[in-house]
Task: inverse folding
């Protein structure tokens, strides 16, 4: 039985999403239904005083951007377990170039 799953990918750098897709597209091509949705990025800005005592006008600004991608796939539960194991190997294993990715996998409700 095929079930719809959503895989959400979060990262601070846009290049990691592109690398993830480039290296893992071969796994998604084996799936019957596969759709990519680029979600809008979140940007947070922080302002910090440079000196805690004087010079209130002297401030530093930092920004934090989070890029997001949603992948919707339809597959069997067994193939999902294999796919998750591949993602874990890429994320946690010896391959350090995918370390800043965060993956969330959700099962869509069946109506």
Result:
């Amino acid at each position: 039985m095929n079930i719809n799953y959503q895989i959400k990918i979060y990262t601070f750098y846009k290049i990691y999403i592109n690398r993830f897709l480039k290296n893992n597209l071969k796994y998604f091509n084996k799936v019957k239904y596969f759709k990519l949705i680029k979600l809008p990025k979140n940007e947070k800005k922080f302002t910090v005083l440079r000196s805690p005592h004087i010079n209130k006008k002297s401030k530093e600004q930092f920004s934090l951007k989070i890029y997001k991608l949603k992948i919707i796939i339809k597959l069997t539960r067994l193939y999902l377990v294999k796919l998750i194991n591949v993602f874990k190997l890429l994320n946690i294993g010896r391959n350090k170039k995918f370390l800043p990715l965060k993956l969330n996998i959700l099962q869509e409700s069946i109506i």
User: Anything to note?
Assistant: The longest helix spans residues 77-92. The chain has a mean pLDDT of 77. The two ends are 15 Å apart (CA to CA).
